[in-house]
Amino acid sequence: MNVLVVGGAGYIGSHCVKQLQAAGHHALVLDNLVYGHRAAVSNDTPFFQEDLGNRAAVSQLLVDQKIDIVMHFAAYAYVGESVTEPLKYYENNTGNTIQLLLAMQDAGVDKFVFSSTCATYGEPNTLPIVENLPQSPINPYGQTKLQVEAILKDLAHVGKISSAVFRYFNAAGASEDGCIGEHHSPETHLIPLAIDAATGRRAALKIFGTDYPTPDGTCLRDYVHVDDLSRAHIAVFDQLGKANTFVDYNLGTGRPTSVKEILTAVEKVTGFKVPAEDAPRREGDPPSLYADNTKARTELGWEPKYMDIESTIATAWKWHESNPEGYADQ
Ligand SMILES: NC(=O)c1ccc[n+]([C@@H]2O[C@H](COP(=O)([O-])OP(=O)(O)OC[C@H]3O[C@@H](n4cnc5c(N)ncnc54)[C@H](O)[C@@H]3O)[C@@H](O)[C@H]2O)c1
User: Fold this and answer.
1) Best residue for ligand 1 mutational test, from 16, 30, 31 (most atoms within 8 Å of Cβ)
2) How far apart are CA 35 and CA 21, in angstroms?
3) What is the 175 CA–ligand 1 centroid distance (Å)?
4) Are 244 and 279 within one domain?
5) 166 with 39, same domain?
6) Tally of domains in the chain
């Protein structure tokens, strides 16, 4: 398959490109590099520096490169910023995705894979999170993802574009060979922050809330390895061949891990103490979020390879240890 990976210079997209290539597909990357890194994409991967909202350019590219499937990872993903700058999020995450879908229609490309998020569920009443729980996001970021999901359902209904939606929990880790990894700027994700605190590149890590109704008082989240996420994206290809398809899958390990457990695991893997201090709870942080991944297991035959948090953190550490500054280009 010829697969255009939109946002393929970002964290999850770049890992997916590697997995696509390993599975024998032809992956091409489109990214405007607002947050991505050119160095995250190998030199032998066709790379187009372009904004996904440029309908005419994207449509031409889809035709010229004979694209079969579009995978869409490009978005702004800072929850706090989405609250203070909502239009920035609606414009890029929803508006530009509409332009991308229009470009696909122009070019006659009808298969789409979309990065959604567990944030579309808001604060669910029941755990683990199953696909058919009500979706009621509590911030504009989650709202933009839910809007795109609704658009994709409508397009599938009329047979225009078949799509697969993946709701990720907390993406974590790095490629096993240590060549690519996680470099967000600014970084907000716990594992890279804890590694940076452990190596003295950051001040003490703040633990937001130690009085949650969880076994150790800190929040529980579901850390799923980025290569496991990528494998699900490829496993879904067969389903996209059918017209009127809209499928959705929650991607997580199904195992909750607390903030304190992450810090302990980072200490064990790196051999360094993680300096940390208690801080008040953050608004909108539910005590516990973890996936029911039965649907992905059953329908896609998907099996997360990294079930043990230390093995996930070991891959992150391999990347950070040899790239303490992250990618050199930013
Ligand atoms: N990282 C996570 O834990 C997580 C969890 C749930 C969902 N997601 C979703 O997964 C996707 C990928 O996340 P990530 O962590 O890899 O993010 P990332 O910021 O590393 O990657 C996003 C990429 O999209 C590019 N991009 C953004 N706007 C663009 C535009 N208008 N035109 C072209 N390129 C553009 C950026 O330059 C970047 O390379 C996002 O859609 C995010 O919302 C991520």
Assistant:
1) 31
2) 23
3) 17
4) no
5) yes
6) 2
